[in-house]
Amino acid sequence: NSGLFKEKFLLKMSNGNKFLNQFFNSNNFIGSFQSYNDIMPSSNLIEFCFIGRSNVGKSSIINAITKTNNLARISKTPGRTQSINIFEINKSFNLVDLPGYGFAKLSKVIRNNLAVLIEEYMKNRKNMKHAFVLIDSKVGLKNLDIDMFDLLCESKKSFSIIFTKIDKSSKTQLELLDTSILSLMKSYSQYFFKTFFTSTKKIEGIIDIQKEIYKLSQKI
Ligand code: GDP
Question: Which of 53, 117, 118, 122 could staple 102 via S-S, CB 3.0–4.6 A?
Answer without folding.
Answer: 53
